Amino acid sequence: MTLMTLDGQRVLVCGGTSGIGAATARLFAGQGADAVVTGRDAGRLAKAAADGLTARRLDAASDEEVAAFFAEDAVYDHLVLALSGGAGAGPIAALDPADLRAGFEAKFWPHLRLVQAALPRMAAGGSVTFVTASSARAALPGTAGLAAINGALEAMVRPLAAELAPLRVNAVSPGVIDTPSWDGVPAEQRAAMFAEHAAALPAGRVGRPEDVAQAILPTVRNGPPPGGEAARFGVRTTCGAGSAGRTGGCRRCGSSRPRRGCRCGRPRRTPCRRP
After folding, report:
1. From 40-44, 82-86, 242-246, the region with the lowest mean pLDDT
2. What separation, in Å, do the N-terminal and C-terminal C-alpha atoms of the chain show?
3. CA triple 259-238-248, angle to 5 deg
4. Are 197 and 175 in contact, with CB atoms under 8 Å apart?
5. Over the stretch 90-109, which tens digit does the pLDDT of each residue have?
């Protein structure tokens, strides 16, 4: 398959001044794209501008700011949503509903708000990529709240792809990635946690923002879901219906990998395999 070039295309990376978003914007700019990043931190915005990116302040939690941003006369070929939110973790017995609600307010609702506002400004045949997290699928104690937040985002991918075609909709779901979001964890504790996770990965280390950016790139360029190198760091891609490399599949569970039967239990014409 011939991948489209990003040369001259305009890419908007929300949450693009730090971590995965910043790495993605730099990678796209290196591919010839006009990369526009948004964020709230003045220092990070200034650094992004110094790196040659178009940096704009935007609080994605504000209806007014989002509406004003997309009221401008600009068209975007691709939208990458890399907003982060750490609230909502912890054992379910002790999880404060207010903390979980804050997690949704920090990640789920801003993602949804941005997609809705951006639609009139998206070029036909472009793409939307959500950056979620492996907590959406991993069965790890203390992550039920995070699974709810990220799982809710991933659950929208296939329906949105069907609804918004020819706009392509995908999600990239990283595992543990060494980003500034971990800076609040004491260095010794953080190193021990990274070492524990690294021992379970083929690469022998946790991922870096650049690894995830490389996984996002083919979803934007209409390539097949990333495997190989990206998979070595626990990065997973969820492709929407109609995306390159994934069509058809089970109409109940949405899976589209070939197999004799479907684990959701429904008889169907197109064999699939749920992850």
Report:
1. 242-246
2. 24
3. 45
4. yes
5. 788 888 899 889 889 888 99
Q: What angle do CA 8, 9, 13 make, to 5 degrees?
A: 130
R_g over Cα of the chain: 18
Q: Which amino acid is at 175?
A: G
The pTM of the full predicted model, rounded to 2 decimals, is 0.76
- 273: which 2 tokens? 């395999």
Q: What is the b/e burial string over 11-35, where b = at least 16 CB atoms within 10 angstroms of the residue's CB?
A: bbbbbbbbbbbbbbbbbbbebebbb
Alpha carbon dihedral 249, 254, 256, 262, in 10-degree steps, equals: -80
| pLDDT value of position 247 | 33
Residue pair 254/268 in contact (Cβ under 8 Å)? The answer is no
Q: Packing angle between helix 19-30 and helix 209-220, nearest 10 degrees? A: 50
Helix spans in the chain (H): 19-30, 42-50, 63-70, 97-103, 109-118, 144-155, 157-164, 187-198, 209-220
Contacts of 182 (CB under 8 A, 6+ apart): 190
Rounded distance between C-alpha atoms, residue 241 and residue 158, angstroms: 5
Two structure tokens written together for 166: 């020819």
Q: Give the residue among 23, 8, 14 at the shortest CA–CA distance from 180.
A: 23
Q: Which residues contact 61 (CB under 8 A, 6 or more apart)?
A: 105, 106, 109, 110
